[in-house]
Write a structure and sequence with these properties.
This protein is an alpha+beta fold and 305 residues long. The protein has 11 helices and 14 strands. It has a 5-stranded antiparallel β-sheet. A 4-stranded antiparallel β-sheet has the order 11-12-13-14, with helices on both faces. Strands 1-3-2 form a 3-stranded parallel β-sheet, covered by helices on one side. The longest helix is centred in the C-terminal third of the chain and has 21 residues. The chain binds flavin-adenine dinucleotide.
């Protein structure tokens, strides 16, 4: 491998400037994924926007985010929580599930071992653009938004739209993910489950994240997000609207109706899957079980907020 140059900008302005003066350079946040790429294929590979995860003619330049304090802040406001892109998963988990929404807290604990979580950052995880990344599904249910900064412009985009397809983000060349903003909601039930194995062809990882507001056995509001590598990240507003206003436990008719609608929703998810039939069936049947289990047990669930 040829010589590697490492830059360590000391603030965001310097970072943007260095990143733009070094076309093809690679941002190094926690480095857990970057190091994997370096070890398997050498430098010269990076993720950037629509180039399908591979930068042509990339230089052997790494830009470390470790000294950029603006990307390492966690700010709590009345209406939202804001997390800098270079905050590690362990730091986020350390704030506790009273401040960090419980679904995100739970999703984070499902990423690798503690040693990985203490190095890997939330921004690095999102920019890796893995559709089965558990925090991604949680953030979609929370309707989080992310800030993208480039030299000429900055913009906020819903996290739901950030990943275009597996391995591809909305980032254009030399744009940086700077902050993740998570609005607080009035949820008193939060549910997050992952099942399957990351990378397994037959039992792929599937994530389900649900937020609900329950009052006197009536479902006042609900958001359901499901995600996995082959199906992408999906929310179905029609299914959510069907449930809003329902009394629990569901009557037999409503239960059957929900089961039918869930079937239609999952058929849609199946269509997205271009992989094997086995994977299709495993993913959708797992999701069906998780969602029915949630609805059947909702009334018994711990009220967390
Ligand atoms: C041992 C091990 C176990 C793992 N287990 C799991 C698991 O169980 N589940 C799971 O989902 N994942 C798992 N992973 C993958 C892990 O989630 C990713 O490696 C990690 O999230 C990447 O974060 P990072 O901060 O290390 O990113 P980096 O490796 O620093 O960066 C990743 C990519 O994002 C780019 N990037 C980083 N920050 C920014 C930014 N602010 N703006 C623009 N681009 C940026 C980098 O240039 C690079 O292309 C595992 C990894 C390891 C090594």
């Amino acid at each position: 491998m040829s010589e590697v140059n490492v830059y360590k900008p000391e603030n965001l302005r310097e970072l943007i400037s260095v990143y733009n003066s070094q076309p093809g350079s690679i941002l190094f946040a926690g480095g857990t994924r970057v190091m994997l790429d370096v070890n398997t294929s050498g430098l010269g590979k990076g993720y950037s926007g629509k180039s399908k995860g591979v930068l042509q003619n990339a230089s052997n330049v790494l830009i470390s985010l470790e000294k950029v304090d603006e990307l390492k802040r966690i700010i709590r406001r009345e209406r939202y929580l804001e997390i800098g892109s270079a905050v590690t998963l362990q730091q986020i988990a350390g704030i506790g599930s009273r401040v960090v929404p419980a679904v995100l807290h739970r999703a984070i604990s499902g990423v690798g071992y503690k040693s990985v979580r203490s190095t890997a950052t939330l921004g690095g995880g999102l920019c890796t653009a893995s559709l089965d990344y558990p925090p991604l599904t949680a953030l979609v249910s929370l309707e989080a938004r992310i800030e993208i900064r480039g030299k000429a412009r900055s913009r906020w985009v819903p996290v739901e739209d950030f990943i275009v397809e597996e391995g591809v983000t909305q980032l254009a060349v030399n744009e940086i993910l700077t902050r993740i903003r998570i609005p607080y909601g009035n949820w008193n039930v939060q549910y997050f489950r992952s099942t399957g194995v990351k990378g397994s062809p037959s039992f792929p990882l599937v994530n389900v994240s649900i937020l609900a507001r329950l009052s006197k056995n009536t479902l006042e509001d609900i958001r359901i997000a499901v995600g996995g590598e082959s199906i992408g990240i999906i929310r179905n507003r029609k299914l959510e609207m069907f449930l809003v206003g329902m009394r629990l436990p569901l009557s037999l008719n409503d239960h059957n109706d929900f089961y039918r609608r869930l079937g239609d929703f999952l058929a849609l998810a199946e269509e997205r899957d271009t992989e094997t039939q086995l994977k299709n069936r495993y993913v959708t049947s797992t999701m069906r079980k998780m969602l029915m289990n949630f609805i059947d047990n909702l009334i018994l669930m711990e009220i967390v907020g």
